[in-house]
Write a structure and sequence with these properties.
Immunoglobulin-like, mainly beta, 52 strands, 6-stranded antiparallel beta sheet, 1 helix
């Protein structure tokens, strides 16, 4: 150490052992100070100690280096000094790389027009004034798609993992949404130009037609299904001499070719068509109206159309099973001995998701199943006391969960109807109608006059009304009543006088018609009216519609729903008449169900709330909410709704990618598409 004054050494290195601490004393009321002059000694700067009153006694130790440009000296509070980055009034537009607590920056990543001032809380960037990052709008950093099984089929019965990497989550976790797209050689389906207007023949109307023929009562019922080629088809199911079950095509007002099955089916009055996603489609005789101990008999055909309808015995079914196409599960009931049992399974008539025996039962008025928005209801009749009960279960893809039981009657009775429409469950017991929002608390409903007998309740989305179809048996009238307040009050919308010899006992909708049908006085009877027959006027002159023909099976463009299919009944210039339960709106396009050729294109996956892939559509369906977790799974089925296996519909070389969305109350974030996966 050497100290020089005016260029002369006062203390040199030889005395460093004696002078390692130089003290500059104060005096005359002033603290000690050191003056550092310029090279001409004409001016200088001073380092001065604090006043005596401060009682200061500390040491400042300089850092090891001279620091970086723009950095300042800071102390750790114990005298150790270091160089630190300056965070000044000009706030950075990007997050500082080594922030100290309290550092600020302006985040414009979500909306450049609405920047968010954020500060470092010691572990995360939070909005100024916020306590934790979980309260912010979510931010997705990456989405990764992974093929789970690289050795099996490409898509058929395969699963794919989707990993959503979150930079910032929500409270408690942001809701996630997914959409996926596949690029492959797809079939090309003819499509029209947009519909410009539509004239719909709605019901009620007075255009009734009646058909009646003599037939012994061994069971007769109408059903609207699809034939093996996939076209809508009317069928008439009939029991013959108590030993043969026939399925006749044609109608209303006609029947033709017959499929016969020796199944000993008698006394049924209704038939139900079940469009499942598995190998088979089904037509069941509905035995829930029976007065004896017979069981359901049925026909089935392969969904791919490789065979015609074939009769089979489904076993001890009380009523037709119910297929839940939202969760791809089956619900069905059976009678074994003196007990009634409800079962839930992933395949037809299976019970791998659970079963529950609900006590004594008898066939009459037992075993009807109805699907509500979030629950499943099962009606049963106790054979010992004759009372009607409703058992309520959760509606989901998991195992059975019983929510409770409701006593509908405290006396001997029969249940002949149970359904869900317009947000309400409706049940009919010995002619009395009740309704409930949860199937646990029921209230009596009065529809029309005391002679009105309910046959069917449906919700009409075009009017937002609940419609009740039935008849006045006493006066031989067909009636339809409507309610716009959830069934609290009803208005008579249709009344038509018929003869007592043609009184029916069921109502069916399909193919642009509504039919009252049934057996009475030795005759099978039908009364049918047009319903949803439509005359579509298309944009243009009609010259571009040469790919369409009368009788073609059609659907709204991009639709995969079997219930939205219809047929063309006539073509005249730009006017096309169709029969369809789907009401076409201006802007819709007609698309053929069957393709004319193929080309490479991109389509979007149809994804359920559980991540189940049911098919593809041509237009972007948007994000489907699949839950709050950051890891999702896409599951392909054994067959699509088209009847094709995914591997058949998505050929070799198809690639898949996904996009994700995260949403909470503060905002949302989207990311995608992800990486591309090409299953081999």
């Amino acid at each position: 150490m050497a100290i020089k004054i005016s260029g002369e050494t006062v203390v040199d290195d030889s005395k460093k052992g004696l002078f390692n601490d130089v003290v500059v004393k104060g005096g005359a009321g002033e603290s000690g100070e050191i003056t550092l002059n310029c090279e001409n000694n004409s001016h200088g700067v001073k380092l001065k100690g604090p006043a005596h009153s401060a009682g200061a006694d500390y040491t400042l130790t300089l850092p090891d280096t001279s620091g970086n440009n723009g950095e300042v000296l800071t102390t750790d509070g114990s005298g150790a000094m270091s160089w630190e980055e300056v965070v000044g009034n000009e706030i950075s537009g990007t997050a500082p790389t080594s922030p100290s607590q309290g550092a600020l920056w302006t985040d414009t990543s979500e909306d450049p027009a609405a920047p968010i001032l954020k500060t470092w809380n010691g572990s995360a960037w939070v909005a100024v004034g916020s306590a934790a990052p979980s309260e912010f709008a979510p931010v997705i950093d990456d989405v990764t798609l992974t093929e789970n099984d690289t050795t099996g089929a490409r898509f058929t019965s395969q699963t794919f993992d989707v990993d959503v990497n979150m930079l910032i989550e929500g409270v408690p976790h942001s809701q996630k949404g997914l959409k996926g797209e596949v690029t492959a050689e797809f079939n090309v389906y003819p499509a029209s130009e947009p519909v410009s207007s539509n004239v719909v023949t709605t019901f009620p109307n007075n255009n009734r037609q009646t058909w009646s023929f003599s037939w012994p009562q061994y069971g007769t019922a109408r059903v609207y299904a699809t034939n093996p080629a996939g076209f809508p088809q009317w069928y008439l199911m009939e029991g013959q001499n108590g030993s043969t079950l026939n399925l006749r095509s044609g109608g209303p007002g006609e029947y033709g070719d017959t499929q016969a099955y020796h199944g000993n089916a008698t006394s049924f009055r209704q038939a139900v068509y079940i469009q499942a996603s598995g190998t088979y489609y089904y037509i069941y005789s509905a035995t829930r109206y029976k007065d004896n101990n017979g069981y359901a008999k049925a026909f089935r055909r392969r969904a791919d159309g490789t065979d015609d309808w074939t009769g089979f015995n489904p076993g001890y079914e009380m009523s037709p099973p119910v297929y839940d196409d939202v969760y791809d599960v089956w619900w069905h009931s059976s009678s074994s001995g003196s007990n009634s049992t409800i079962r839930k399974g992933t395949t037809h008539l299976s019970n791998d998701l659970g079963e529950q025996t609900r006590g004594y039962s008898s066939q009459s008025g037992t075993g009807i199943i109805a699907l509500g928005t979030d629950r499943v209801v099962f009606s049963r009749r106790n054979s010992q006391n004759g009372r009607i009960y409703c058992e309520v279960y959760t509606r989901d893809a998991g195992s059975m969960q019983h929510l409770g039981s409701a006593t509908i009657t405290t006396f001997n009775a029969n249940c002949t109807y149970l359904n869900f429409a317009g947000g309400w469950f409706f049940i009919k017991v010995d002619g009395t109608i009740k309704k409930s929002s949860d199937a646990l608390t029921w209230n009596t409903v009065t529809i029309g006059n005391s002679d009105f007998d309910l046959l069917e309740v449906v919700f009409n989305p075009s009017t937002n009304n609940i419609e009740a179809y039935g008849q006045d048996y006493t006066n031989s009238k067909l009636e339809m009543w409507t309610s716009n307040n959830g069934g609290a009050t009803w208005v008579l919308a249709h009344e038509d006088q018929i003869t007592s010899t043609t009184t029916p006992n069921n109502v069916l909708f399909g193919g642009g018609k509504v039919i009252w049908y049934g057996y009475a006085n030795g005759y099978y009877n039908e009364h049918y009216y047009p319903r949803n027959e439509q005359t579509l006027t298309l944009s243009g002159t009609g010259a571009d519609y040469s790919s369409f023909n009368v009788g073609d099976l059609i659907r709204p463009e991009g639709s995969t729903s079997l219930s939205e299919r219809g047929t063309i009944t006539s073509i005249s210039g730009a006017d096309i008449e169709v029969e369809s339960d789907y009401i076409y709106q201006a802007g819709d396009k007609i698309e053929a169900v069957y393709p004319t050729n193929s080309s490479v294109s991109t389509r979007y996956l149809v994804i359920s709330a559980t991540g189940a892939v049911t098919g593809t559509v041509g237009s972007d369906p948007g994000y489907v909410s699949v839950g709050p977790d950051t890891n999702q799974t896409l599951t392909f089925p054994a067959t699509f709704d088209t009847g094709n296996a995914p591997d058949d519909e998505l050929g070799a070389g198809t690639y898949i990618k996904v996009s994700a969305q995260a949403t909470n109350t503060s905002g949302s974030s989207e990311f995608g598409p992800s990486n591309i996966v090409t299953p081999s």
